Amino acid sequence: MRRYARITRKLPREIVLLKGLPCIWSRCTFCDYLEDNTEDAQLIERVAREELAKVTGEFRRLEVINSGSVQELTEPVQELIREKLVAAGITEFICESYWAYRHRFEETRRFFGVPTRIKLGVETFDHHLRNGVLNKNMVFDSPAEVAALTDTICLLVGFRGQTRDTVRRDVDLMLEHFAYGCVNLFTPSPKTAALADQPLMDWFRTEYAGLEDHPNIEVLWKNTDFGVG
Ligand code: SF4
């Protein structure tokens, strides 16, 4: 497993994949990265020390992910990150958080002290697909409600039940309401393979190839495209 990488193409940054405590929800049907979660706080801290030591601050931007939410990193690890942000001169920090922590987003930003973008996995703005198919347990009334919480979201493309129209709507809403976005093409694993819609992914690759040119929208054609995982 590679846990440190430099992203040089778009929004240049260093990225580290840390280990965290188990995801508070752990029930999304498409999620196959929970195996990296652990209850072992010492292991979580050891991995964090090893990987954060590689961060040089060369881009002044750092992303930390942990197969869950940033709030699921132990307190000592959150402290280590905060210290690293200062020591490496980081001016933009990026992390991920699940919907259940939305009332703590401001607290999280305050804690890290530098401008902090919280990536929220919306996956789709279609209520039925998000909750009935993906089991995301994420209910909101409008994209504006989500946009009031964060300017950065993730979408998931290529799972069964989605159509070209729902994907077009999702991308339109992302571009309309959010400054930053990450579109993840569904990467099936043995556990989630039945959920994949390969023809839809093939269509998306052609139809939305132009997203590569958008300065703030990243497309992960496979889930290791950031160089970690
Ligand atoms: S909230 Fe995130 S980490 Fe937790 S089960 Fe869903 S996709 Fe996986």
Protein model, in words:
This protein has helices at about 40-50, 75-85, 105-110, 125-135, 145, 165-175, 200-205, and strands spanning about 5, 15, 60-65, 90-95, 115-125, 150-155, 180-185, 215-220. It has seven helices and eight strands. Helix 3 (about 105-110) links the parallel strand 4 (about 90-95) and strand 5. Helix 1 (about 40-50) runs parallel beside helix 2. The chain has one domain: Aldolase class I (TIM Barrel, Alpha-Beta Barrel). By secondary structure, it is an alpha/beta fold. The chain has an eight-stranded mixed sheet with strand order 1-2-3-4-5-6-7-8. The longest helix has 14 residues, at about 165-175. It is about 30% helix and about 20% strand. Iron/sulfur cluster binds near residues 27, 28, 31, 68 and 121.
Low-confidence stretches: none
Quickly count the helices. 7
Sum up the overall morphology in one term. Answer: globular
For the largest beta-sheet, the strand count, sense and barrel status come to: 8 strands, mixed
Beta fraction? 15-25%
Tell me the structural class.
alpha/beta
Read across the widest sheet, the strand sequence of neighbours is 1-2-3-4-5-6-7-8
Number of domains: 1
Number of strands: 8
CATH class: Alpha Beta
Instruction: Give me the CATH architecture, please.
Output: Alpha-Beta Barrel
Work out the helicity level: 25-40%
**What would you give as the CATH superfamily?**
Aldolase class I
Spatial gap, N to C terminus: 6 Å
Which fold name fills CATH's third level, the topology? TIM Barrel
